[in-house]
């Protein structure tokens, strides 16, 4: 990994939330570099700031101070439109609660990111079918989320995250709502996506999954305690 | 291009949302939106239209483009001949109608013999002397005949009666209208001189009080009945060829009207501040009703969509 170039970097990231007169410092000067193709895990106790760090790294949220560099570009200079463009074209997301649209079928849910990018519906449909096949849901294309199990929903979410061939996949506690067996399958699925160039950032508090990653970053009270 | 794609995705999501939502929820949402739209567009439009319609009617069927009436502190227009001559010679003027007005007692269903114990069917109203052809050219009075015939020429003892005087047409306070008067019936009008008998040739009904609450007779009949000098008139309604010359024509007639103790006003001036105030009031009222309707509809739609989303999530 040493020869790989840095795809994401965080420099002295501070994130503070203010509620009324109460100021809560969630991240207190995080420095981090993530190499291209690296599979890293961010772990820590509840409230340690691991999810906040993921949101800041993935441009879903802005740091109070500090810099996020994506492919050496300082994202502080990005407009909201550029943030959106970056998230759409370069990042994929998997969330704990799946974040699927209940009125769309699995195929439609997966196809949404491509609809914004491409014109040809047939191509979009083909890509959707292909990626669902890749996650083992070939026979559930036209099922609605309410007709899928938790594990299947998360597979659809993974398929949606990778359909646009992202450079970085962010997964925020993707196994939190799943039983042990389904959780293992999802982690194996995500780990199996490690192809050349795909970087994975996994937020989890499950110790057993850490060994599958290249590097573990442990956070406690907003600072990195182990890397 | 991007916005087109975003629109396409938005449309796709909306279509799926509608397709998969509860049918009755969709119907309710569409109903609320339709009612809100109607409320926004039609209520304000209706209120504004009422005023505009009344103003237009007044112009087309009463005042014409310009109307000459006595000065504020005067009762009649005097020396009308000079003024009428000026009007007749003005090339901008398309038509005009000179009107003579006077209060009179109008009686129907009367007996030839005095019967002290029988209640008389009599009212007090305004009689109007006009040249029927000129009036029709100027205000299309014939259009408002709802029964009987319009009067042409100068027939003896024929009148047109406004519906406001007749119980069959106007459900006003009992005793303020004539009972059972129809076309062909005789009515008795008493003005300055002794009463005369007239035959009802036609009945007029419009939205204007100036038509509904008058009895129309020829100028000659009026003068004969009231003994009024032809030089003393009450209203002159005028229409012009070109609306662009309205102010110019009004100014020209104003100086002639001054020497007759009268004033010339455009149709808008003659309607006064009333219509403008009414229009403004209705506009504000429409906006307020629309805003309240929009707010109520927004909250209702939010609640409906929210409950629908929550229940589907479950």
Strand-helix topology:
The complex is a heterodimer of chains A (227) and B (314).
Chain A: E1 6-19, E2 22-35, E3 39-44, H1 50-57, E4 65-70, E5 73-74, H2 80-90, E6 91-94, H3 106-115, H4 121-134, H5 150-162, E7 168-172, H6 180-192, E8 199-203, E9 215-220, E10 223-226
Helix pairs in contact in A: 3-4, 3-5, 4-5, 5-6
Chain B: H1 2-20, H2 23-63, E1 66-70, H3 80-89, E2 93-108, E3 121-130, H4 132-139, E4 145-148, E5 158-162, E6 186-190, E7 196-204, H5 209-212, E8 214-218, H6 219-226, E9 235-240, H7 246-258, E10 262-266, H8 267-313
Parallel strand pairs in B: 3-8, 5-7
Antiparallel strand pairs in B: 1-9, 1-10, 2-3, 2-6, 2-9, 4-7, 5-8, 6-7
Helix pairs in contact in B: 2-8
Rounded to the nearest angstrom, the distance between the terminal CA atoms of chain B is 37 Å
Overall pLDDT level of chain B: 86
Residue-averaged pLDDT of chain A, rounded? 90
Can you list the strand order of the major beta sheet of chain B? 2-3-8-5-7-6
Oligomeric nature of the chains: heterodimer
Total count of strands of chain B: 10
Please give the count of helices of chain A.
6
Category from helices, strands and their pairing of chain A? alpha/beta
Order of helices and strands of chain A: EEEHEEHEHHHEHEEE
Q: What is the tally of helical segments of chain B?
A: 8
Q: Which segments of chain B are poorly predicted (pLDDT under 50) over 5 or more consecutive residues?
A: none
* Estimated share of beta-strand residues of chain B: 15-25%
Number of strands of chain A: 10
- Helix/strand order of chain B, N-terminal first: HHEHEEHEEEEHEHEHEH
**Rg value of chain B:** 29 Å
């Amino acid at each position: 990994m040493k020869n790989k170039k840095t795809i994401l970097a965080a420099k002295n990231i501070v994130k503070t939330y203010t509620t009324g007169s109460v100021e809560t410092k969630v991240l207190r000067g995080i420095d981090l570099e993530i190499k291209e193709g690296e599979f890293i895990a961010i772990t820590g106790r509840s409230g340690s700031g691991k999810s906040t760090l993921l949101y800041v790294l993935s441009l879903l949220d802005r740091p109070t101070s500090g810099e996020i560099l994506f492919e050496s570009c300082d994202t502080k200079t990005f407009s909201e439109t550029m943030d959106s463009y970056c998230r759409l074209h370069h990042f994929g997301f998997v969330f704990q609660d799946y974040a699927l649209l209940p009125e769309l079928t699995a195929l439609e849910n997966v196809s949404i990111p491509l609809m914004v990018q491409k014109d040809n519906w047939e191509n979009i449909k083909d890509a959707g079918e292909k990626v669902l096949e890749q996650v083992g849901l070939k026979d559930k294309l036209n099922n609605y989320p309410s007709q899928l199990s938790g594990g299947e929903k998360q597979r659809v979410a993974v398929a949606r995250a990778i359909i646009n061939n992202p450079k970085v996949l962010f997964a925020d506690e993707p196994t939190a709502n799943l039983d042990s067996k389904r959780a293992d399958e999802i982690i194996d699925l995500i780990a199996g996506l490690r192809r050349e160039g795909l970087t994975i950032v996994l937020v989890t508090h499950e110790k057993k999954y850490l060994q599958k990653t290249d590097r573990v970053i442990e956070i406690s009270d907003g600072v990195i305690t182990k890397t | 291009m991007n916005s087109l794609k975003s629109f396409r995705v938005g449309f796709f999501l909306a279509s799926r949302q509608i397709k998969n939502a509860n049918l009755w929820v969709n119907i309710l949402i569409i109903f609320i939106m339709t009612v809100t739209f109607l409320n926004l567009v039609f209520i304000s439009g209706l209120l504004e239209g009422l005023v505009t319609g009344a103003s237009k009617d007044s112009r087309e069927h009463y005042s014409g483009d310009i109307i000459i009436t006595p000065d504020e502190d005067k009762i009649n227009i005097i020396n009308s001949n000079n003024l009428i001559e000026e009007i007749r010679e003005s090339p901008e003027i398309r038509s005009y109608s000179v009107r003579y007005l006077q209060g009179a007692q109008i009686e129907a269903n009367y007996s030839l013999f005095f019967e002290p114990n029988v209640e008389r069917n009599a009212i007090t109203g305004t009689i109007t002397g006009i040249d029927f052809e000129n009036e029709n050219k100027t205000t299309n009075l014939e259009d408002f005949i709802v029964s009987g015939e319009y009067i042409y020429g100068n027939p003896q003892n024929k009148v047109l009666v406004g519906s406001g005087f007749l119980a069959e047409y106007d459900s006003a306070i009992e005793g303020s209208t004539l009972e059972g008067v129809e076309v062909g019936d005789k009515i008795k009008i008493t003005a300055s001189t002794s009463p005369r008998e007239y035959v009802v040739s036609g009945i007029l009904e419009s939205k204007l009080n100036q038509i509904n609450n008058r009895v129309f007779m020829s100028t000659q009949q009026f003068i004969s009945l009231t003994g009024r000098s032809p030089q003393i008139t009450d209203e002159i309604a005028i229409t012009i060829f070109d609306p662009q010359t309205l102010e110019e024509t009004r100014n020209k007639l104003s100086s002639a009207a001054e020497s007759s103790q009268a004033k010339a006003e455009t149709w808008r001036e003659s309607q006064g501040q009333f219509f403008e105030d009414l229009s403004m009031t209705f506009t504000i009222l429409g906006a307020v009703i629309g805003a309240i309707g929009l707010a109520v509809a927004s909250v209702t739609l939010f609640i409906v969509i929210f409950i629908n989303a929550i229940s589907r999530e479950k």
